Amino acid sequence: MTDRIAKVVVDVPAQETNKIYDYLIPDQLLDGLVPGMRVVVPFGPRTIMGYVLAIHNHSERDNLKELANVLDVQPILTEELIELGKWLSEETMSYYISSFQAMLPQALKASYKKSLHRLAPIEQDALNTLFDGRDYIDALELLEHVSLRQINEAIKRGEAEWDYEVASKGKVKTIQMVKKVGTLDQFDQYLADLSRQSKKQFQLVDYFLGLEEAVPVKEVLEQNKTTKQTLSKLEIAGCITFFQGEVYRDPHQADRFTRSAPLPLKPQQKQALDKINQALTAIKNDVFLLHGVTGSGKTEVYLQAIDTVIRDGKQAIVLVPEISLTPMMVDRFKQRFGDAVAVMHSALSKGERFDEWRKVHRHEVSVVVGARSAIFAPFDRLGLIIIDEEHESSYKQEDHPRYHVREVAIKRGEYHQCPVVLGSATPNLETYARAKKGVFTLIDMPDRINDSVMPAVSIQDMREELHLGNRSMFSGALKEAIQARMDRKEQIVLFLNRRGYSTFVMCRDCGYVSECPNCDISLTYHQRHDQLKCHYCHHQEPMPKTCPTCESDSIRFFGTGTEKVEEALNQTFPEARVIRMDVDTTRKKGAHERLLKQFDNHQADILLGTQMIAKGLDFPKVTLVGVLAADGLLNLPDFRASERTFQLLTQVSGRAGRHDLLGEVIVQTYTPEHYSVELAQAYDYQAFFNQEMALRKAYQYPPYYFLTLITISHEQLLKTEEVARTVVKLLRKHLSDEAIILGPSPSPIERIKGRYRYQCMIKYKDEPNQKAVLKKIIEHYEPLKRKENLSIQIDLNPQQLM
DNA sequence: AGCACGCCGACT
DNA sequence: GTCGGCGTGCTC
Question: Which domain of life is it from (predicted)?
């Protein structure tokens, strides 16, 4: 007997439905249905989408319903990805459906349409006339006009029924194509019948006789300067045929890339490549940490390792942080591997993303370069996974499933027995610790390939500047350095980790600070629109002219954002051309690229920006990098603050003097004696690692302890507190005595979007019970979750403690 | 998450 | 008496 039970995960993201359902496979679908396909299934009174995880020959239950339909011709998940999805759900405590959705492009999500289907004339006149010649009415439209009762009565009388339509969201783009189908005889016959005036027809016959493959109709018309009407004559004669052909929305279509050849390698690059190649030939799933300073030539090592992989007939995934997925980076891969590369990043439209994904799915490419989600590329012969800038926080997904791409990469590496390469100048502390322990293989690349030295970093103590009477945001040294670059026609990059104009607005008379009504956070002034904005819930309000409480007019801006720096730059250096780059100036599609190109063409002298300019940029004429306030990150309530500061300062310094001109870095700070500032100045990763590890050990943080962060939120403060307290109590009771449970305490931002937030943290070394306990707690609060909109979020190995 | 069922108060 | 509010339970 054939297997006819499909094991299905249904598209309902809820605790109670987070299980695998059994369906009977009807005869007509039996042929060709395989695991990994999307299906349409009846679920209660409606019809929804689901993923087939397996096909079995028996079920624990009887009275199974039948599958309604199949949405795919080919499976969209491989056996490996099905297992990976299940693992991901368990690992992150997410629903199965959420994991599978996260692994696939948006375009493969289901779209649902509910409508009323008229089967016979309806007694109820109002309802009947509403149909007005149609047989289906959309449910939303329907309910605007008639009551549910009337509809239900019609259904009961058998005059109508609900119809649930399930379709895939994304569309495959097609264009009209034409190809030759006629025989030579047919063409001859056609020519014989033509009148001598039909010049275009003769031309077209000629054209098609010399053509073997299909061509877009548009192209034929353009090339022959004719019209569809004329072309159709040949179709009627049976010489050619029209059809809809699939095409890719290719965002890089217009670009022609000159292919690049592998560059000669320096000894340290050769050594690194050799080690990776060894693992490639041995088919071993080693994890390498490529610790190489900025400019050490990591990318060329990646490129050449991938080359080996491709020549073996295998495939490679390259992950880069979203922010550094710049055209420059993409071009480098396109130049080396041409059409063998698919690119996936968030700047693509949903359709474009879908098409890049389909290239991978059909194995038309061997390399994917992309941001986080590209780790799920449906390759079947994976030979290598590379994660560049592995310390980047964007590799952790911050909503369900809360996965870290590094862990997924290692999992896939195990399955395919392929190496994973993590690259960084400032590795994540946990990664480096694993490398030192020998879990990962450490490869050092300490030298810059062009033998240039790292730029000198000088620290400016802003407290001293203040004592000297300098109340501006530029230290004397920075001001001088900027002026010098301006005089020499060189370029400058300035970095400030805060957008907007001011960080907060305060009344000098009464101390009033404008705060967001929904979030416990002060509002940021944005000069451009003269508005106060909340960066968390996007609330905005006009800037008050006088203090709302005491009506004094001494309401002032405090703190500094990029807008204010821009203004100050224009005042201090009136001749300087400044480009400001932050979320506010790059919101529009393509703005990011445009601004960078402008700067590259030296249409500006100063590039001023937030985090987004810290990575991957490489401009030959930049000889000065200024960090306006290194303390911005340092004072955040997060145990990783020092690490982030060190990483940021090092990354930013790497932007200066990468070429023949000597670079200089100036870091302004109020805490010059902080070790992450001092050691970044000395480019001493080792010392930083040692010092930070000692602190992590003393304060019981990763990598010495694992963390779990639980955030409870609710509209009422009291309820939030109460639940948080109970959660902690339950954890204390059910976890081992070795687990350290902190809290509950208000989250660093106690209220966001009108909801109070409390958190507690578990620090542990080995807690095999933890997930089961957490699951129990979640289940216990399930009713309250539905009834009062309570939310309990669990983040295993959190990267952000906010 | 929907959706049905069922129980209660507010109306013609 | 009927309409519609929402609390409860189920979905192979």
Answer: Bacteria
